[in-house]
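Morning F.,

Quick status update on the modeling queue. The single chain you submitted on Monday has been processed. Sequence for confirmation:
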Amino acid sequence: MTHIVSMRITHRVDLDEEFFEDIICTMFEGGSNYWIDHITINHPCGKKPVGIPRSTWAANALNENGTVIVFISTFDEKPEEITLVKNMLVSGLAKWAENFQEHVSIVTEGQKCTIDAGDIDADDADIILQYALFNDIVFG
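Structure tokens below.
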């Protein structure tokens, strides 16, 4: 008779600026655009340079301790707004990793562990953002 043992393993992962840029681009360019009306980017450096995509500028703003104001589509005249900061995004990512473990690809290189951002699709990015903003899945 075979006995199956389950155990939980916790990883410390290092997430660089490129990782956040990848998932933020996925969020704002496809994952969450069905419920987001628009965003406003408050970058510490000021105005967005010409030629940089808005999602890249948003990711850069969060990486530089700026904010992104997310305007949520509602049936009211004025969209609801929530200010997103990087630590909210990290919390949303942690909750997603805990609740959707089968979607998380951990890459280990020597002593360093990272999450493979290439495996985070639009649906996953949407869930991460909803966890970051609402601590729950509110849409879809």
